[in-house]
Every structure is written in C-alpha cells, then in structure tokens.
Fold ABC transporter permease subunit.
Amino acid sequence: MPSEAPPFGSPPASVRADAARPAEETAHAARIRGARGRRRGSGQRLPRAERLAPYVLVAPAVLIIAGLRLYPLALGVNFSFTGDGDRNGQAVGWDNYATLFADPLFVESMRNVGLLVLLLPVAVAIPGILATFVYLRVPGHRVYRSVYFFPAVLSPVIIGAIFNLLLAFDGPANALLGAAGLGPVDWLGDPGVAIYAVVAVHIWATFGMALVVFLAGFATLDTSLIDAARVDGASLPLVIRHVIVPGLSRTIQFVVVTTMIGMLTSMFGLLYVMTGGGPEGSTYLPEYYIWFQQGQMSRPALASAASTVLFGVMLAVGLLQLAILRRSGRED
C-alpha cells in the first residue's frame, strides 16, 4: 500500500529528520550531564587520589605556617598569662596586661600607634604619586625610578646614622632653616617633634618597595581607559581619581596593609639608632617596648603580653583598613 503523501506545505522527510536530530542530540547531552551530576553528587566522579591531590599539595605550606607561625603564637599567648621573676612559670591571669596598661611607656607606645595610623595615608600616597609619574613617563623617569628605590637597599642602622648627622641641632637641616630665616628645630630632642622625624625617615627609607608594587599594579591597567579619558579632555587629577585609583584598588589594599605592618614592626633599627626611645619615651613603639622588657628588664612574660596586644592591634587595624577600602571600591 503506498505511503500517504505529506500534507501540502510540510517539509520533506529529510528536512524533518535533520530538524529532529539536534533535539535528539540535546536530549542525549542532557542525559550525560544528569549522569555526571549524579556521580558528582554521590562522590564517585573522581578517583580518590585525584580528590586528595589538592590537600596533599597544600599540606606543606599549611604545616610550615602552623609550625612556625601559629604554634609559636599560641605559645606566646599562653606565656603571657604566666609570671616573671619569683613567679616564673606560675599562672597569673591578666596581671601582665594590667601592668602593661598601667605603664606610661606602653601607653605612650600605643598613642604612637594611633599616630602611625593617621600618617598611613601619607606613607601610601607618596609612592603612589611617584609611581604614577614614572608610569606616565615624565622626563627622567628611568633615573627617578632608580633613585627612589635606592634607600630600600640600605640598612636601617646606616640610615639612622646618616639622619642623626643631618638632623643634629647644628646639622645641615637647621643650617638650611637658618639660611631661610627660620629658627633651628631640635628634631631628635624635642618630645613633640622626634616621633614625626623618625616616621618621616622611615617613610623615606621604605617607600621604594611600595613604589615597585605600584608599578607592578600599573602593568595590569587597561591603557585604553586612560587614553579614552585623555581624548575626552580629562585632566590628570581626574584621570588619577576616576581611572587609575579604581583600577589599582587591589594594589592599594595590599600596599596599605603591608605598609601598616612595616610601620608597626620594622622601625626598631631607626628608633634604636636615632632616639633610643627618647626623649622622655616619646618615640616608643610596641616593638621597642617589647625589646626593652625582654632584653633590658628580663621580663619575658610581660614582653609576651605586649606582643599579644601588638598582634591584636595589627589584626584589627588590617581588617578595618580592608573593610574601608573594599567599601570605597564598591562605591566608586
């Protein structure tokens, strides 16, 4: 019996078969994905060795951090609740922390930490601005890049000795002020000035590393955005504010945190050489206080308590800075 002819206007059989094939392939692919999903959900998609491979690769780094960082930190925190001297090894509760906050030197060191937090934007802005000029290839930018990084390779002891000569009461800095008709300043002997002088020297000595980090961040910028802003007639401050700063948000976060950590933990050499914590304890920072209690007063438990407080301050300040920077990045 002859087959019925297709209705008028319907496509030929070959066309209908071609049209049905993609639907069949789609259904087949869906069945495969469903099977894979069921295997994934049941934990049978990968062999056991492949599932354990990421943990095996991460394990050495985790063990190193736990053994050389977290375990000593836990020991230090535990040791801070023990006594010194006649009470060595005895549990004393919170006595060491009460002693800390009753000590004028430690209180002054914590005030100076607050000052460092206030001066942090300056410490970050200086290398950021200089890196912007180098990135924009101002005349002589290659020479400037070398000169800016040079202080980072010098020892803090050498830098402190150099600036002791420059900032002496009868040194070159006051000679320049005298030539300008200004009175001399006791840079390292005035309690209200000494901490600012030491922090300024530290910023000068360390901003070369932040400059390198900023230059690495500039390498990730989309230059077409900067070119478009220039074509639209945007001035340099507007380009920096609306193009460069948002594009470097991650780099800025990194520099802010590392700079703050450096200011809290890397100024001992300068303090020791330039002021020795003076005058009148005005340049004490927690790390210098820790060294003084441990090395000079033989009070390791009290020094451990100060170290624990310093760690808590660094953690809180770092998390707060990251939260502020992330919020400002979302607003931009």
Q: What stands out?
A: Residues 22-78 form one domain. The radius of gyration is 32 Å.
